[in-house]
Design a protein that fits this description.
Blueprint: H1 2-14, E1 21-31, E2 36-38, E3 40-42, E4 47-52, E5 58-66, E6 71-76, E7 78-90, E8 94-114, E9 121-145, E10 151-158, H2 162-165, E11 170-182, E12 185-196, E13 206-208, E14 211-220
Antiparallel strand pairs: 1-5, 1-14, 2-13, 3-4, 4-7, 5-6, 6-8, 7-8, 8-9, 9-10, 9-11, 11-12, 12-14
């Protein structure tokens, strides 16, 4: 996946040599939907309950290539934080509580079409593939036995989590926004929807949200 991203970067760097306009900037915003879908189910002997942490920011650099006839090509490197908690019950009395956090990186490559301008505002639509990966995974697990006081073991720490290992890493993004020109700056608020492939071997009570919506603001110059 990262090899594909490097190829895209090479193409973007090379195209200005053919007379196209290349702009650099930053994009940031907030997610409207959570990164994970969660649920809860318990019986007398076993069960599971999960919750997704709220991470209210997305930020990263962007590159935009102006093409003829109102078309553009945009490449983003967007960073956000992931987090979730998972409680599992086994053998009636044993509870394992795991708290997981990680850095999330997404790499959308979007074809954009600019619609006719309305005064200083120019609406646009966008669509293209998006890829993602994680780094800096941190898992802290504590085991509690119901008949005892306090933790029976832990916390123990690891740098891998099966829910993240099974998470899909490719999807399709589409968006609608508008570009406002202020002197040498281009300010572009937008709403972006991304549909990700389903997780591999999904946990029914903790799995990645396939449909995610973000409100973003791009600034290029």
């Amino acid at each position: 996946m990262l090899g594909n991203v490097q190829v895209v970067l090479l193409v973007l760097v090379s195209l200005p040599c053919f007379g196209q306009q290349l702009e650099f900037g930053v994009k940031g915003g907030i997610p409207v939907t959570s990164a994970f879908q969660t649920g809860s189910f318990f019986t007398m002997d076993f069960g599971e309950s999960a919750s997704s942490a709220t991470r209210r920011y997305t930020v990263g650099p962007m590159v935009e290539l102006r093409l003829p006839h109102g078309f553009e090509l945009e490449f983003d490197v967007l960073y956000s934080r992931l987090g979730f908690a998972d409680l599992t019950k086994s053998v009636a009395l044993i509870f394992d509580y795991a708290n997981t956090s990680a850095n999330s990186w997404s790499f959308p490559v979007l074809a954009k079409y600019r619609l006719p301008a309305l005064r200083v505002v120019r609406p646009y639509i966008e669509v293209g593939p998006s890829f993602r990966t994680v780094s800096g995974v941190s898992v802290s697990t504590t085991r509690i036995i119901e008949c005892c006081f306090g933790p029976a073991s832990g916390p123990t720490h690891s740098s891998s989590d099966s829910h993240l290992n099974n998470r899909s890493n490719a999807g399709v993004a589409t968006g609608l926004g508008m570009q406002v020109r202020l002197a040498f700056l281009h300010i572009s608020p937008e709403v972006r929807f991304t549909h990700w492939k389903a997780d591999q071997q999904a946990d029914p009570y903790l799995y990645a949200n396939q449909n995610q919506v973000e409100v973003l603001l791009g600034i290029t110059f």
